Amino acid sequence: MDFPNIRFDMIWEYKELFLHGLWVTLSLTALGYLGGIILGLILGMGKLSKRKWIFYPCKYYVDFFRGTPLLVQILLIHTALIPTIFGHSLGYFVSGVTALMLNCGAYNAEIIRAGIQSIEKGQMEAARSLGMPHSLAMKTIILPQAFRRMVPPLGNELIALLKDSSLVTVIAANDLLYAGKVVSGAYFRFWEPYITVAILYLLLTFICTKIIAYVENRFSNSYVPSSRRKIFSFGRSA
């Protein structure tokens, strides 16, 4: 097949399948990332704990999920873990979200741990010297500052998870890649469906990049709200 004969009319014919795949991909990514943030916060705090019965389980968990391929984790969870617990499979969506959440949680744990440890110890010591409980000092002083430094790596993890969600197609998930496989099998043509899938993923990552850049700028130390910016510019002109 040569490039001038590329047919995108067949993509339009299967547009509903691609739109459904787009929705599944976004749902898997959003739920997996949200769960990964919550789990990562718990694991990250656990890795900072001085209690061994908290530290070591968190450490081994992170080491396992960071040290094994996500594809293997998806298959293990879908074919072994969930059927063992519930007696039967709960479908590709539950298995996919679970695998993405558990994997994302391990990577987010390291990001959160590093972000917290990047804050000077003197701030926690100062808060404790004023009689503030450790948990309250962590919530109101350490975490808000650490979050500013976590935004770029957490954003990169979101983009990585969005692309890695395509691996869920191995358990028959009706995601974007699955739509491309169906169209390519129906027409025995491969340029059109997979180029379409690649373009859609590119658009999604581009949108995520713009959102992350806005959040990063919004939480940066040099950020000035637009209303204040107008006041400052008016003051200078005066």
UniProtKB/TrEMBL annotation:
The keyword Transmembrane is annotated on this UniProt entry: yes
Alphabetized UniProt keyword annotations: Amino-acid transport, Cell membrane, Membrane, Transmembrane, Transmembrane helix, Transport
Pfam families membership: BPD_transp_1 (PF00528)
Listed PROSITE patterns: ABC_TM1
Membrane protein topology class: Multi-pass membrane protein
The name this protein goes by in its record: Amino acid ABC transporter permease
Positions of transmembrane segments: 20-43, 64-86, 92-109, 194-215
InterPro entries reported in the protein's UniProt record: AA_ABC_transptr_permease_3TM, ArtM/GltK/GlnP/TcyL/YhdX-like, MetI-like, MetI-like_sf
Record family assignment: Belongs to the binding-protein-dependent transport system permease family. HisMQ subfamily.
Localization of this protein: Cell membrane
Residue ranges annotated for the ABC transmembrane type-1 domain, each copy included: 22-212
Record carries keyword rRNA processing: no
